[in-house]
Amino acid sequence: MEGVVDRSHKGSELPDFVLKDSTGKELRLASLKGKPLLINLWATWCAPCVAELPALNRLAEKRQGNLRIVTISQDLAQPEKVTPFLKDKAPLLEGWLDPQNDLTAFYQTTTLPTSIYYDAQGREVWRYIGPRHWDNDKAAALLAEAGQPA
Length: 150
Fold this sequence. Notes:
By secondary structure, the protein is of the alpha/beta class.
């Protein structure tokens, strides 16, 4: 399970998108500065995305308080299934919706999962296209690029 690291957008500002969860609660991405942020674009129908969820959940547990992980579903057909699906597979992860796939267009990606990592100042560090084992030494080295302790 290996993907590609893309640093060509390094330094780009965190976008000012507003996401919603299944209850209608809103989250403004641009408000998430202050600690490193890992955005994960995924979908319930994407087998590599689903396989990656447990490792992301373990990362959320290990880095609690030092790293925010925001999972953003690209499910168009049945967004109401996202929250229960995520709660079952990765209960520590935040389940947000992008029903118009605005973020896949913004990040110019057609591959799921795609993860985008921002430093505490809201500047992009890298993008990871494809699934990843998030709880190993290679992932720890990537996360350290934003000053995130291992």
